[in-house]
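Input (structure):
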């Protein structure tokens, strides 16, 4: 349904930059696959998303942290966080109401809606390759640690 880079929270206040793919629901679950990079050659983690998964967000100025079950993620912008939350929540609602597996046409509609939203977002960072990613990682780690610590809200929708 969608894919992109996220920071994944780790132990001892460490974060890893991972490429995530949100897969459509099939049967009673969906999957979020985390890879080392956008070429998806080495899977780091595979998370199951079900109707009982916990989807959470953090409150704070410019906070871009959200959670799925026991995993915390950080996006580059608040708009990107909202996009990920909306996609995961939509999947969860489909699973809660036992929606039939999506057809190829429905998958295309899902992906098209995500693409339209992404195209409407302002660019998050100026071009700069590794320097931009390093700045993103440093800002996200600092922001998650200071602005979002301890303030959370959860949803089962």
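Output (sequence):
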């Amino acid at each position: 349904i969608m894919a992109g880079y996220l920071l994944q929270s780790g132990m001892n206040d460490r974060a890893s930059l991972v490429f995530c793919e949100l897969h459509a629901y099939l049967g009673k679950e969906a999957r979020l696959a985390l890879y080392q990079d956008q070429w998806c050659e080495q899977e780091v983690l595979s998370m199951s998303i079900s109707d009982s998964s916990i989807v959470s967000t953090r409150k704070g100025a410019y906070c871009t942290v959200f959670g799925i079950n026991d995993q915390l993620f950080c996006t580059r912008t608040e708009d990107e966080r909202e996009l990920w939350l909306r996609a995961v929540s939509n999947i969860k609602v489909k699973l809660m109401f036992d929606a039939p597996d999506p057809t190829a046409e429905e998958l295309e509609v899902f992906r098209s809606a995500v693409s339209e939203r992404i195209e409407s977002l302002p660019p998050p960072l100026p071009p700069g390759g590794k320097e931009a990613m390093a700045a993103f990682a440093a800002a996200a780690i600092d922001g998650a640690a200071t602005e979002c610590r301890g303030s959370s809200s959860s949803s089962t929708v």
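Notes: The longest strand covers residues 15-26. Residues 78-96 form the longest helix (19 residues).
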